[in-house]
Amino acid sequence: MNRRDFIKRTTGAVVATSAVLTACKNADKRAGTLSTESITEQQDLGEMTMRINPNTGDKVSILGFGMMRLPVLAGGTARKNPDSPIDQETVNAMVDYALEHGVNYFDTSPVYCQGESERSTGIALSRHKRNSYFIATKLSNFSPEIWNFDDSKAMFENSLKDLQTDYIDYLLLHGIGMSRGGRDGMGSLYARFLDNGLLDWLVEQKKAGRIRNLGFSYHGDIKVFDLLLHWHDEGRYHWDFAQIELNYLDWNFADEINARNTDASYLYAELDKRGIPAVIMEPLLGGRLARLPEDIASHFRQRRPQASPAEWAFRFAGSPKGVLTVLSGMSYMEHLKENVRTYSPLQPLTDEEQTFLLDMAEELYGKKNVPCTGCNYCMPCPYGINIPAVFSHYNKSINEDRIPNFTDADRKAFFEQRRAFLISYDRAIPKQRQADHCIGCDHCVNRCPQRIDIPREMQKIDRLVERIKQG
After folding, report:
1. Which of 36, 86, 391, 397 could form a disulfide bond with 372, CB atoms 3.0-4.6 angstroms apart?
2. pLDDT of res. 399
């Protein structure tokens, strides 16, 4: 989808903030798209924007609470301090604030927060009326050891137990398209859900009311995505929603950043024309779009001094009319409050603002950062490398123009920048966990949702560091 098509598709989402639109539960099925009236309900100024699920009539908050980076007692998040217990009191307070301010979609998984996210989410939400929120969780049967029917079924049953509920509002087949257990994306799909009869069983659970909406989250192999939509078209399996990565950098540059990724413009268009609501993940691309290089950040400040880069990215993700909710993995109350402000109500992007963001995406693409979102699926590395930290330091150095300029005629400036880079590298990552310890074992490659060739990137960074050391 080109820029003109994007603007055309998202313009329908722009509605007057003073009007309250009544949702039309009957989408135009023959046209294959969702009308603005069928998916959008814009509340009065100061209230959370809600979207209507055309399949169920659910009024879903445009901001979804991702429960994958929960705070821990040791400080920080469960991803950075995996051995620390979750700070349940803080989680409870954040969930209370979210519900009070209109956020009603909570996304979790059996594998988030070292397997503790569902339990923590269940504790926090069970203190409220069950009809005041929607629970989204996943069948995250990534390991071949649990690809058999009984163990995968047990994972679903345990989710119900931990979440303290009798039914799941939105259940996803987790990580469709990813390579797992030595199988490619297609082989993994069949082994995890088809060959064992699990997907047919999930359809039966939906009929029994234990699952209200059945969908999938997509990463990786586009042939798998297309196959699932083909099944939807022929009536073999009906998808009530799908979760995709969408942000203004991935809109047109996902497959150029990484050849095994897929442009969000294609994913969104395929869902939209079938009337399948889209749940959005990675609106900030792992925080990358909240921490912009200074030269690009200055363009944002000139345009709207009061708006943060994160606000721009969230507005982009929420503007397309077929988007049901935009997930944000919020660890701190201040992040939650900022995101609530952005979406209370959502101000859809104008045509001019959409063009501006797509122009900024072109500049960001030119920076050639590693598209790591810090999800930690690649960890632990058998050789002790802190893969996300290495990529984070490298990207930050590019964004802040801290890579020494080897062509700089000012040798004093070069050596000062060289010293600063090497010191910051050692401070950010212990020497035994740096890129030079990568042996290219490929243990991490099939685990990465972004399909990054991690060994190649590690070798590239190691060569750069060695060149800087040599001066």
Report:
1. 391
2. 74
Helix (H) or strand (E) holding 267: helix 264-272
Arithmetic mean of pLDDT over the chain = 88
Pairing of strands 241-245, 211-218: parallel
The CA-based dihedral angle spanning residues 240, 243, 244, 246, taken in that order and rounded to the nearest 10 degrees: 100
Tabulate helix, strand, coil % of the chain (nearest 5).
Answer: 45, 15, 40
According to DSSP, the residues that pair with 72 across neighbouring strands are 86
Cβ distance 225 to 175 under 8 Å?
no
Residue 23 in this model has a pLDDT that exceeds 50: no
Distance CA 298, CA 408 (A): 24
Rounded Cα distance, 394 and 294, in Å: 15
SS3 readout for 110-173: CCHHHHCHHHHHHHHHCCCCHHHCEEEEEECCCCHHHCCHHHHHHHHHHHHHHCCCCCEEEEEE
Handedness of CA 234, 238, 244, 248 (dihedral sign): positive
What 3-state class would DSSP assign to 348?
A: coil
Reply yes or no on whether the pLDDT at 180 is more than 60.
yes
